[in-house]
Amino acid sequence: MLSYAQGNSSAFESLYKKHKGGLYRYFIRQIGDLQLAEDLYQETWGRVIKAASNYESSAKFTTWLYRIAHNLLIDHVRAVKPVDLFSETFTEEQDSECFLPSDELSPDRVMEVNVKASLLKHCISLLPTVQKEALLLNMEGGFTAGAIAEIVGVTLEATKSRIRYANQGLKSCVMNKWQEVQDER
Questions:
Q1: Co-location of 184 and 105 in the same domain
Q2: Residues 25 and 46 in one domain
Q3: pLDDT tens digits, residue range 58-81?
Q4: Which of 77, 152, 168, 185 is the most buried (most CB within 10 A)?
Q5: pLDDT of 139-176, one tens digit each?
Q6: Taking phi first (over 0 means left), then psi (-120 to 50 degrees means alpha), and beta for anything else, what does residue 181 get?
Q7: String of DSSP letters for 9-45
Q8: Is the pTM of this model over 0.70?
Q9: Over the range 51-61, which residues count as b (16 or more CB within 10 Å of their CB) and which as e?
């Protein structure tokens, strides 16, 4: 980022290529709306470009980038407070983008894996917003609890609690939903 701030446009391309997938998935997983995710994603990169000349390397670039993304999400949620976009479930179109079964799996096993993936996505969508964000940043983004605390602006202990409660809630939800599926068979 420091190189980009000094006018090296290829440095921005490197940053963009390295972080584009994870950042876009962050927005998709948080709000589940492809168009809104694209808008917020573009706005994040726009803010990175605008802030380049003032960038200080007091934190890792990734932490800074996701802090911008987090703040944009918060701003959006505040703007549409009556509508809880975070609880929307994934559409079938999004589900098919996320899972491509292996050719080695039997049809029954493919169905089971698809059902479990669907249950997991549903259970993630039921998590409280702060737990879901911490969990996704940790598991999908690969961020440590310390980095997540910096991104979302809470204490390390609060972040650890959010991740722990999210994991507990997911485990319980998936087990209960899987049992319901088994009972229906």
A1: yes
A2: yes
A3: 778 898 999 999 989 888 877 765
A4: 152
A5: 888 889 999 999 999 999 999 999 999 999 989 998 89
A6: alpha
A7: HHHHHHHHHHHHHHHHHHHHHHH--HHHHHHHHHHHH
A8: no
A9: ebeeeeeeeeb
